[in-house]
Amino acid sequence: MTSTRKICDPGSMAALADLTASERAILSLLRRRPGASRAEIAAELGLSPALLTKAVATFLEAGLVEEERARTPRGRGQPARHLRLRAGQVAGFGVSLSTRGITVAAQDLTGAALARRWLPVPATETDAALAATCAALDEMRALTRSAAGIGVWLPALQDLSGAVVEVTPSQRAIDHAAFCDRLTRQFDAPLWLESRASAYHEALQPGEEERIVYMLYLDYGIGGSLIDQLRLYRGSFGEASNIGAMMPDAGPRPSLPDLTAYLGLAPEGLSDDLLQELGRAPTPALTRWIESRGATLSLPLSTVVHLLNPAVIILGGLFPRPILEGLARQVRLDLLDHPGRRPLTKPELRVAQACGPGAMGVAAASVPLVHRLAPSRRNRQWIVH
Known about the structure:
Shape: globular
Largest sheet: 5 strands, mixed
CATH architecture of the largest domain: 2-Layer Sandwich
CATH superfamily of the largest domain: ATPase, nucleotide binding domain
Number of domains: 3
């Protein structure tokens, strides 16, 4: 019988699990502005000195932050005390499964990537895949004092409880239920199975966690996600925010199958290595595809601007960064502006920080951190039935 290995330090786990709204706001501010003083934090968040003192004491005891006094005081009184998150103290772990192999990654609360491992073991081989994943997690847990949990990326449709309704055809040969069940039993840590992991990762980037972020991800299909201050909006039936992906099914859609067909390759011909090679050295055919498909995104993303009014729109998914950047250059966000009316303020349009083959494991590592910083009843921990 396999023994259970603890991956979490109970003290730090409790500190993250029971955060108040004010404590989450403090940690979020420190992610954006490392080294902020107590006075600056209190003024910006409107916190009383007593409440801030109590929160900081909790963080110091749990090892989440560190504090140092300025070497020279400014004017009268004691030197200012500056706070910053402690690197490597609390991490989220991420797993991405595919028929080609597995990516395992770790990311700490500051947003720094601690490690990433590519395991050339097909996830369809459950026993071998689980053994390799557990070995990688064992190595990575030595890099941090505590874990916020484990996120597993799964391209699928999920309902409001997080249950999988429909899996992408490319993933149906993988027994996700058995894998997650056994992984949960192997490690004493909460586990979230999440199709929108890449959106969580982008929303957690310093400077984004307080904004409304819309992400359009391009992989085996096209999907959209809306996150408002770290809270994912799924809608009443788990299908919200796909307005940015609504193009006629009969027309061209910038996805991996579409690019495969455009290049005249067999379905299995567009490997991760070929994708990366195309990103580094685009062919004339790829350039034509980018120009054509990027333009098709203008109308749905202009609709996103008017309907959802996000602060930032992000293109991401399994395409390498150079291909996504090429698509982004073709996008216009003003197609629905009315002549004679003041045009809407346009959001920033950028490419995801974590994109391309192998990046979804990194994105999945953000999922436990987001749930700890912004817990939500509608995005609860995955439960083994």
